[in-house]
Amino acid sequence: MDVPPRWLDPEQKAAWDSFIRMQEKLIGRLSRRVQADSGMSAADHTVLVNLTERGDGRMRFLDLAKLVEWEKSRMSHQVTRMAKRGLVVREECPDDGRGAFIVATPAGYKAIEEASPQHVEHVRRLFIDALTPNQLSTLGRISKRILDHMEKQPD
């Protein structure tokens, strides 16, 4: 026996549609700004932020792909493009012949350090400044709750 779909009611649909539109518009604007300000793509920025926020600027390839929710092939193409520009290098993993580390180079660190002040100003202007401190705190708790819930769900 087929289970009928659990359609969203009007309030649920409005909340979902607003969330998706806000997220798409915010990411689109931030992506265009990082490209215009630094010449980096949003994907370059995502990879470099995640690498450089760690003390040694390195992550296992698959861990990085999982962290940013990208398929292996997308991460592989992105790393190849970034390596050609000298922003990252791929290093073999000594204890796993099939594994690799992605490592931010000095040029990668310099690129993200130069892009970050402008990027954070755009984040502040487009996102942080739109909310009161209480609203920001509430959004943070809601976001964490959804992330925790998703971790318990099958992919």
TrEMBL record:
SUPFAM superfamilies: Winged helix' DNA-binding domain
Name the UniProt record assigns to this protein: MarR family winged helix-turn-helix transcriptional regulator
UniProt-listed InterPro entries: HTH_MarR-typ, MarR/SlyA-like, WH-like_DNA-bd_sf, WH_DNA-bd_sf
Residues that span the membrane, as ranges: none
Residue stretches making up the HTH marR-type domain: 1-148
Species, as recorded: Streptomyces incanus
PANTHER family: MARR FAMILY REGULATORY PROTEIN (PTHR33164:SF99), TRANSCRIPTIONAL REGULATOR, MARR FAMILY (PTHR33164)
